[in-house]
Every structure is written in C-alpha cells, then in structure tokens.
C-alpha cells in the first residue's frame, strides 16, 4: 500500500500488516495536526484514511487471508458513527491531568482483569501516566464493569483485533504524538524479579539507542489468548520499527491466575477467541 492508495499485489497477510502500519501513520498525522487550520491538509488526510479503510474491507473479503476475526468489522472500528474516519483526538477522552504525563500507556484487555489491575497498582500511576485501555471485543460482564471503574479512557472494539488494535484504531498514534508510550498486550506484566525501575530503564535505553523504535521486555507466550507484548515506543515510531529487548533481570511474564480462581474462569473459556 502507498500513501496514494492500496496496492493489490502481494501476500494478503503481509498486506494486512502493511495496512495496519499505514493506518497508524495516518492516525499519527491526525493527532499531530489537530490544532491546524489547514483545511487542505485535513482533506488530504481524510482521503488517505479512506484508502486505508477501503483496503481493510478488501482484505476482509479475501478467503485466503487467515487472520480470523481480526479483520471483521475493522473498518467500522476505524470509522466513526457518521461513516467518516475520525482523527485520533476525536475518540480519545480529554486528559484531565493538570501536568502533562511524561509516559503514555495503551493496554489491550480481553475478558481478563487481574493482570490489568496488577499492572496499574504496581507500575503505572494514573495520576502521572496517560493510560488508555482497549477492550478487545470482550464478552465478560464482570470485566466490563471493572473497566468502567478505572477512571481512565476505555476504547471498546466491536470485533477483536488483538495486537493490531492499538495501531489500526489510532490509540498508539494519539499517545505517541506527545510522549513515549508503553504498549501492553496478552496479560504481560514485569516478572517477580524485574526491578521496580523498569519504566525508567526503558526510557533510558530509548535515549541511548536512537536506531530502535521501542524497548521491551522478553515475555514467553503461553499459547493462549493475545500474544504478550510489553514495550515502550518512542514518539513517531510504528509497529514495524526495530525493537530492542532489555537483558535479565528485566523480564516479563504472562500473568495467569490459578485454575481455581473464579475471577478468571470466564476468560479461560474464551482464550480461543
């Protein structure tokens, strides 16, 4: 795909990744020029976003594309209720913090809540970190009620996009327009032996490694749910930029509660979504 429109040739799965990256770049443009009075620039951005949406629709119709429900209703996720693509700032709640946060965080959640609350309680202070949660088409009523009590913006998707959601919807672009942003998926949290200064260490590594787009923790997937990611991205970067992993003891884990925990029972039954 190019800035002028979709490219139809090539492997469909590769094209999906390309379209997600393109959607992120256009959403980043929307976030950085939201205060501009340049009507021509806004129209051009709208045209590019329309091309991204059309390509997502085209990919969704291809039988050989094996990405399951990641693409189902993707265009509706990116589009607003009026049928036109909305800039990222139009769908993110206004930050009420007086002093601008120095770090952002976009956390993807689907039917699980223990890892999310653990992460916020131990590592992310909502008073100093700009947190946004993506409810990845969750179906657990208890998790939905908990998200309503967090006091942070929650973006609810109509169909699961997994790790592509933060990029395709513009959530990462909105945060990255102003600050380095942590991306968390798949119930990833810093491990028990991970030092408490993990966020500061990631910021420091970003400062000394200008050639990388993100610094992250190594997290071994457990074969269930969304693949785990715990990475801090620098402003202006996207999902295809190089990632540097921190050495031990800076290691992440997938936080799964014991099989007898009723609070996570619903999520275990829906890990195949």
Could you please describe the fold and organization of this structure?
The protein is α/β, with parallel strands linked by helices. It has two domains: 12-85; 103-269, Alpha-Beta Complex (Spore Coat Polysaccharide Biosynthesis Protein SpsA, Chain A). 34% of the residues lie in helices and 14% in strands. It has helices at 12-32, 39-60, 74-78, 114-123, 141-148, 165-168, 171-176, 198-208, 265-269, and strands spanning 103-109, 129-135, 154-156, 181-185, 188-190, 214-216, 229-233, 243-245, 252-254. Strands 3-2-1-4-7-6-8 form a seven-stranded mixed β-sheet. A two-stranded antiparallel sheet has the order 5-9. Helix 4 links the parallel strand 1 (103-109) and strand 2. Helix 1 runs antiparallel to helix 2 (39-60).
Instruction: Indicate the CATH class of the largest domain.
Output: Alpha Beta
Strand content: 5-15%
| Second rung of CATH, namely the architecture of the largest domain | Alpha-Beta Complex
- Which structural class do the helices and strands define? alpha/beta
| Number of alpha- plus pi-helical segments | 9
Supply the key terms.
273 residues, alpha/beta, Spore Coat Polysaccharide Biosynthesis Protein SpsA, Chain A, 7-stranded mixed beta sheet, two-stranded antiparallel ribbon, 9 helices, 9 strands, disordered N terminus
Write the layout of secondary structure elements.
Elements: H1 12-32, H2 39-60, H3 74-78, E1 103-109, H4 114-123, E2 129-135, H5 141-148, E3 154-156, H6 165-168, H7 171-176, E4 181-185, E5 188-190, H8 198-208, E6 214-216, E7 229-233, E8 243-245, E9 252-254, H9 265-269
Parallel strand pairs: 1-2, 1-4, 2-3, 6-8
Antiparallel strand pairs: 4-7, 5-9, 6-7
Helix pairs in contact: 1-2
